[in-house]
Amino acid sequence: MIYVHVPFCHRKCTYCAFYSLPSLRKAEGYVDALLAEMALRHGEQAHPIQTVYFGGGTPSLLPLGLLARVVEGLRRWFDLSHVCEATIEANPEDLTPDYLGALAELRFFNRLSIGVQSLDEASLRLLNRSHTARQALEAIENARAAGFGNISIDFIYGLPGRAHPPVVPAGVTHVSAYALTVEPGTALAMQVGQGRVALPGDDEVAEQYHAMRSALEAQGFAQYEVSNFALPGFRSRHNSRYWDRTPYLGLGPSAHSFDGRCRRWNSPMDADGAWTVGGEEALSEADACNELLMTALRTTDGLAAAAVPEGYREGLHRAMQPYIECGWIERPADPQPVYRPTAEGLLHADGMAAALFV
């Protein structure tokens, strides 16, 4: 699988800690450097490529001529004959009928991930989003009219004020719902630190989470990961592969890659719009086991004991008992158990995993 990082944004959202640039000034240099990276690294992707994901930043902000060059580069340097899912992230204000028609003409992307975040105008202003609720709804309608049948939207909960459970617009097949987090160095962190923004406490955030999950399930969406819900047959194939530690190639500035043994990461862009393939970390057996714990326990599929290195299994089973007894993990009956988080356990997945680290 391949991830392509497109770092450009209309403007920086208050909560965002991802590498991004609120300007298209370096866009042409970025594409030149990205094509050069493809030529340099195409041999690293030994596994059949089944998914491609353009994330950011805001990939839909990249001018269509430049986006077409990137797609052409992927087709030149990689075998895409097995790709079944190609996703592009987009902001609602970019998804005009003309843009979506041109995007469809590329005959590459078959899934849209739209950054709706909220359908409440006050919340959108707090987050410094550059679209309105009406634009978000129009974007979904435009995408359906352009023939996109696999549409994911993002929601953020844990916002100030009374939270209403989301009503998912018609045509949406997948929802990613994230708790608002205050990342160091963001505008939101400064606003909270200065007392200009007061966020709800943990108990209220948990209530919002449960209300959101219940509302989505009532609309036919099944939860399959802490933050992800899908109609039948519409799980994100790409993201699901991150959670089972499938190797992937990350292209673009600050993108990460994983070959099954090592993690590598690129530098940010320099003044010329280029970057380097920089750091590398070789994972020990314990590191790999801990990563498996962290990702698998966030999913409803859970953690298969057989996937854990044999030397850690007995200790893991003992350490799981308190979580089984308190109802956060389903009680496994099989001799080779699968530890599946309950609905309540998913809310505590990261804490459980950290406590179980070997």
User: What structural category characterises the helix and strand content?
Assistant: alpha/beta
CATH topology of the largest domain: TIM Barrel
Shape: globular
User: Any low-confidence stretches, pLDDT <50, length ≥5?
Assistant: none
N- to C-terminal separation?
29 Å
What would you say this structure looks like, in words?
The mean pLDDT is 90. α9 (285-296) packs antiparallel against α12 (349-356). With 358 residues, the protein is of the alpha/beta class. The longest helix has 17 residues, at 202-218. The strands form 3 sheets. The protein has a 9-stranded mixed β-sheet with strand order 7-8-6-5-4-3-2-1-9. The chain has a 3-stranded antiparallel β-sheet with strand order 10-11-12, with no helix packed on it. It has a two-stranded antiparallel ribbon with strand order 13-14. It is globular. α1 links the parallel β1 and β2 (51-56). It folds into 2 domains: 2-243, TIM Barrel (Alpha-Beta Barrel); 285-358, Arc Repressor Mutant, subunit A (Orthogonal Bundle), CATH 1.10.10.920. It has helices spanning 27-41, 64-77, 97-105, 121-126, 133-145, 187-193, 202-218, 237-243, 285-296, 310-325, 343-347, 349-356; strands spanning 2-6, 51-56, 85-90, 111-117, 151-157, 174-179, 222-225, 228-230, 249-251, 256-258, 262-266, 277-282, 303-304, 338-339.
